[in-house]
Specification:
Number of strands: 17
Largest sheet: 5 strands, mixed
Distance between the termini: 137 Å
Radius of gyration: 33 Å
Strand order of the largest sheet: 10-17-16-12-13
Low-confidence stretches: 194-198
Order of helices and strands: EEEEEEEEEEEEEEEEEH
Mean pLDDT: 83
Helix content: under 10%
Structural class: mainly beta
Strand content: 35-45%
Oligomer: single chain
């Protein structure tokens, strides 16, 4: 008779299932945001060290979530989100040709431009308004450097008056910057002094009535 042989076999596990990953992203319906965007990540597998829940904060600019997870059996799962744009920076404004509270006795050329990688042209406004009632909405062009620029060459278009140049610039993430410049165009010396004197006399008369 042959001898009985005994073989001890260690327990082992057959694992053909890849790890489970679930990812939810704040404001995932919006391509642009000016708020911190966070990805909430859950990883689970019976044969994986490091299971748990994690958070990833998207970096400013274009960013996405990319994951590659392997368990001890070598099963791999990969995940890649859409690319989103985070923008926490206000548009930059450049104004030349005028200064706030300045007085000009000749034609004025104003150069206004906005710099932002994600400028929202449709919601960016520049308005030039005079106290006499003249009002102009100014439109610009997007140059190859990404600046939305507008050149206002006065010549005879703007009459002598007190003016306010107002702008409101948005980017696609909703960041907004606004300001107003006040200035005077007075090509005919003394005109405003006379007008101001008449207004002063009228106000004095009204106060005494």
């Amino acid at each position: 008779y042959g001898r009985e042989a005994r073989v001890d076999i260690d327990e082992f596990c057959i694992d053909t299932t890849a790890p489970d990953i679930s990812v939810t992203i704040d404001d995932e319906e919006y391509l642009y945001t000016n708020q911190p965007r966070i990805a909430h990540i859950r990883i689970y597998d019976d044969n994986l060290d490091g299971c748990g829940e994690y958070e990833y904060v998207f970096e400013e600019g274009e960013d996405k979530v990319e994951l590659s997870v392997a368990d001890k059996a070598g099963n791999v799962i990969q995940y890649e989100s859409e690319t989103y744009i985070q923008d926490y920076t206000l548009p930059t404004v450049y104004v030349s040709g005028i200064e706030n509270d300045a007085h000009y006795n000749s034609n004025v050329i104003m150069d206004i431009s906005f710099e932002d990688a994600n400028i929202d042209i449709d919601n960016t406004r520049v308005t030039l308004k005079g106290k006499a009632g003249d009002e102009y909405e100014i439109y610009g062009v997007l140059d190859e450097d990404g600046r939305y620029a507008m050149l206002v060459e006065d010549k005879k278009r703007c009459s002598d008056d007190y003016y306010e140049l107002s702008f409101e610039a948005y980017d696609m993430a909703g960041n907004v910057i606004s300001d107003t410049y006040s200035f005077t165009i007075n090509r005919r010396a003394g005109l405003f002094k006379i007008a101001d004197r008449i207004r002063e006399l009228f106000n004095t008369f009204s106060d005494n009535v």
